[in-house]
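re the bet — no i am not wrong, look at it urself. input seq straight from the record:
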Amino acid sequence: MGAADIIPGVSGGTIAFITNIYDQLMAAIKSFGLDALIRVARLDVAGALSRVHLRFLVPLLLGVLLALASMARLMHMLLAEHPVQVWALFFGLIAASILVVGRRVPGISVSNVLAGLAGALGSWHLVGMIPVATPETPVFLFFCGALAICAMILPGISGAFILLLLGKYEFMTGALKAPFADGNPLVILIFAAGALVGLLSFSRVLHWLLRHYHGLTVSLLTGVMAGAMRKVWPWKEVLETRLVGAREVVVREQNVLPDVAAQGFWLAVGLMVLGFVLVLMLEHFSGSTAEQ
C-alpha cells in the first residue's frame, strides 16, 4: 500500500482491496470512535486500547511507512528515467485489480451497472483534470490532508494524485523530505490533522456503504478503478507543461497508440503482463491464507 501511494494515479486502497483486507481496514479505522476517546479522557488507556484494532493497524502502518521511506526516491527515479515501462507495470496491476474487484459484485443489475458507469465517468474526468497552483494557508493545507487521505483509501484514485491536482504534491513531498526545516513541522502537523479528520470521518461513511449497499458500492469502486486507467496508460504525448516551484509538471497530455517498432515496447508489454499476473497470484495466495 505504501509503495502504491507514492505514485500519482495508483491507489493503496486498490492493494487493500485485492488482498482481502479492505473491509478489515475500514473496520479498524472505525474502531477509533467516540467510545475510545471517552476512555482516553477518563485516563482509561487500557480500556481505550482494547477498543481499537492495534494488532491489525500497527503492522500495516509500519509496512506503509517502511515502503514510503525506502521506495520514494527509487520510484521517482524510475518514473523520471523509465516512465513507459513503469506505467506499463502499473497498467497491468490495475487492469487485473479491476477484474478481481469486479468479481466481488454480487450480481449484474441495472443499479450496479449504472453505479459502475458513474464511477468510471467520474474517475475518467477527474484524472484528466489539470493540476493547479494553490495557496499555502493553514485552512487549505488542512483541506488537502483531508481530501488526499479520503482518496488514498479509495481504490483507483490516489492521494498523491489529488495532491498533484491541488498543486501541493511537490510542496508536501518537500516538507516530508526536510521535516525539521523552518516552518515544515507546522505544515506537516496541519496536513496530518486534516488527514486524521478526513480518515476518521470518511472511513465511517465508506464502511456504512459497504455494509448496507455492498453491491452498489463495489460496482462504483470498480468503475472508479476502470476510469483511472486513463491516467496509467503508458504511451502519452505531452501537450503542455508548467513550472510549479522548481518542478516541471505536465498539465496537458493525451494518450497515444504505441509504436510497435520502438525500443522498449516489448519490455513494456512484458511488464504489463507481469503486473497482471502478479495481482492474480496475490489474490490467489491472500485467498488461500484467509481460508487457513
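see?? The first strand starts at residue 236 and ends at 244. told u. also The two ends are 23 Å apart (CA to CA). so pay up
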